[in-house]
Amino acid sequence: MEKITIIGLGNMGGALVRGLEKSPLQSALSIDVYDLDPQRVKACGAHVRGLSSLEEIELDNNILIFCVKPQDLVTIGKVLKGRLKKNVLIVSILAGKKTATIARELQFDGPIVRAMPNIAAVIGFAATAMCANEKCETLEKQHAEQIFKAVGEAYWTKESLMDAVTGLSGSGPAYIYMVIEALSDGGLKMGMPRDLAFKLATQTVLGSAALVKHTGLHPAILKDQVTTPAGTTISALHVLEERGLRSMFVNAVEKATLRSIELGKDE
Ligand SMILES: NC(=O)c1ccc[n+]([C@@H]2O[C@H](COP(=O)([O-])OP(=O)(O)OC[C@H]3O[C@@H](n4cnc5c(N)ncnc54)[C@H](OP(=O)(O)O)[C@@H]3O)[C@@H](O)[C@H]2O)c1
Fold it and tell me: Which of 16, 36, 101 to mutate to test the pocket of ligand 1 (most atoms within 8 A of CB)?
């Protein structure tokens, strides 16, 4: 992997640029960036070369990472259609856009990786799932993996599961923000200052996730370890079970998955 061009420098594109700039890949890579907004191009670091139009993108031996909104694929398609060499690798993070759709929009017969990262890429903690079309060889898959491992963790899956990935880890940060907000409100209701409640709630979510990861234990085992007979925690857990917290999350992931499928059909 020598050359990368990142198209679209919003939340996710910007995070990828920062992640790649900080990663060991940086020294081996030449990174081009392009966004409609020249200020966003300027804001990228010194190791990056800014392009001033889509026409300047190198069409040969390049990894193109699409980070624009799904509806903007058409605009990019108009410029790149039928012009990309087969040794280009396309990496798309566009929600709902299938590899076959991208191939069609660009009239491109080469390797395409579809990835779904999440917003934690901004701080190098993304959970990303990826799938590859049949034109991808091992080397291209390695390249895609290196890119997303520069901003967090990355796993391979099949394309039929990408909508479920969107429903779980793509949209997931929003669910957890709601949990943090709700826990803080609980502290507030019990008389805590807002600031303290917020800090305790945030660190509790962070620490609990870190412990699951660090020990490799099933969350149910960790939950049992902190639940004592007739104690405070079991009283709270009883309420959460009674009000259906588990099915609420299962249903939330299902709903988001179905919405992702629906959006994919609109194309
Ligand atoms: N945000 C998330 O949590 C998340 C998670 C997973 C996947 N994704 C996917 O990531 C993609 C980007 O999301 P985002 O949140 O980063 O969006 P965003 O913040 O709106 O960034 C998109 C950027 O692309 C620019 N752009 C639009 N058309 C362009 C073109 N033709 N050429 C170059 N740049 C262009 C936009 O400029 P303007 O603002 O001027 O239009 C904007 O700066 C989406 O497809 C989304 O499905 C997002």
Answer: 36
Do the beta carbons of residue 93 and residue 66 sit within 8 Å? yes
Nearest to 145 by CA among 122, 126, 159, 162: 126
* Digit-coded pLDDT (tens) for 118-164: 999 988 899 999 999 999 999 999 999 999 999 999 999 999 999 99
- Which CATH code is given to the segment(s) 3-158? 3.40.50.720
List of residues 6+ apart from 81 with CB closer than 8 A: 105, 106, 107
Average pLDDT, rounded, for the chain: 94
For 57-84, the pLDDT digits (tens) are 999 989 999 999 999 999 999 999 999 9
Write out the residue limits of the CATH 1.10.3730.10 domain(s) in the chain.
170-265
User: Which superfamily is assigned to 170-265 in CATH?
Assistant: ProC C-terminal domain-like (1.10.3730.10)
Cβ of 36 less than 6 Å from ligand 1: yes
Q: List, by residue range, all CATH 3.40.50.720 domains of the chain.
A: 3-158
Q: Report CA(67)–ligand 1 centroid distance (Å).
A: 5
pTM equals 0.93
- Please tell me the residue having the least CA distance from ligand 1 atom 2: 119
Q: In a 10 Å sphere around its CB, with 0-12 CB exposed, 13-18 middle and 19+ buried, how is residue 137 labelled?
A: exposed
Average pLDDT on 205-217 reads 98
167 lines ligand 1 (CB under 6 A): no
